[in-house]
Specification:
This protein is mainly alpha-helical and 297 residues long. The protein folds into 2 domains: 3-25 and 162-292, no CATH class; 44-157, no CATH class. It has 12 helices and no strands. It has helices spanning 3-13, 55-75, 80-85, 103-112, 118-132, 137-157, 162-170, 174-200, 202-212, 219-225, 231-252, 273-292.
């Protein structure tokens, strides 16, 4: 994996402003993990009559459900075949994060991530409407909302993944929660230092900016966003990132250009938050070394 792909992968899945943000527990006033709200997908979610909403509200409703599906795909043991049968394959656990092989999954992550908005999403749609096989964004939102809510019901009927029970037990242990909080606070600080290193290297900054420009962000703006999210959000994002990377690296680590980074991530997903944050330490260290090794011209 070369540095450009590494930076792009990190930008896509490492922090909450990524393409698959999970911000259901978002609260700027709370910096510690809140066990009582960590799995809030378990709460009921209202399904709107999408045909009665204006296009702005349609978009926001799709955002809400897309991000819930992104979370459920990790925390539920749902079968992809159930989504295939229901003709909502793209939202199944094997498809929703398949950015490398499935262009639609990548486009959806751009369209519906929580750092996007209707104007930005409309632009992405226009650029990709041939791929999405639709000429009208509002009609597309109506169709996708129907698919998302159908997928949502499939996920809710599925059993929890083993990691849910493990994390719930973990969050009952005050010492473990303290450890995770400290790790996340260190991660946020190290991420900001890493961005400072990027800013010193024009080549690295260029690659990172290219990965972020889709969202209307620069490296500098990315840094400012880190502290906007609480530790619930960061913990969940780190856990989800490790799940995604473990699957992708399992597929790609034997390729000639895979490099050393895949060896830092187990091909088995983390069992709990502690495993995930410990792996993140190694990943950040590798990122720092990779950036420092880049030529400056």
């Amino acid at each position: 994996m070369n540095i450009k792909n590494l930076l792009r992968t990190s930008a896509l899945v490492s922090l909450p402003i990524s393409t698959v943000p999970i911000v259901s527990c978002y609260n700027k006033d709370k910096v510690s993990i809140n066990p009582s709200t960590f799995f809030d997908y378990e709460k009921a979610t209202k399904v709107e009559d999408i045909t009665k909403l204006n296009k702005q509200k349609k978009y926001e409703s799709c955002q809400i459900f897309f991000n819930k599906l992104s979370e459920l795909s990790i925390f539920k043991e749902a079968k992809q075949s159930d989504f295939d049968t229901a003709k909502v394959s793209i939202y199944g656990p094997e498809k929703i994060y398949d950015f490398v092989k499935d262009k639609t999954a990548q486009i959806h992550s751009f369209l519906f991530n929580n750092e996007s908005n209707f104007e930005i999403a409309s632009k992405h749609f226009e650029e990709n409407k041939t791929e999405l096989n639709s000429n009208n964004f509002e009609d597309y939102l109506t169709t996708q909302y129907s698919s998302m809510t159908k997928a949502f019901e499939i996920y809710l009927k599925a059993p929890n993944s083993k990691s849910v029970a493990s994390i719930k037990e973990e969050l009952k242990d005050t010492e473990k929660v303290k450890y995770i909080n400290n790790k996340i606070n260190d991660f946020k600080n190290e991420s900001k230092k890493l961005i400072d290193e990027l800013l010193k290297n024009s080549i690295a900054k260029e690659y990172a900016d290219q990965a972020l420009e889709t969202f209307g962000f620069s490296v500098e703006k990315y840094k400012d966003k880190i502290d906007e999210y609480d530790n619930n959000t960061h913990a969940k994002k780190i856990f989800i990132m490790q799940n995604i990377l473990s699957k992708e690296f399992a597929k790609n680590q034997t390729q000639p250009n895979a490099g050393a980074i895949p060896s830092l991530v187990s091909t088995k997903p983390p069992k709990n938050l502690t495993e995930a944050v410990d792996t993140m330490d190694k990943f950040l260290t590798a990122m720092k070394l990779a950036i420092k090794s880049l030529p400056t011209t």
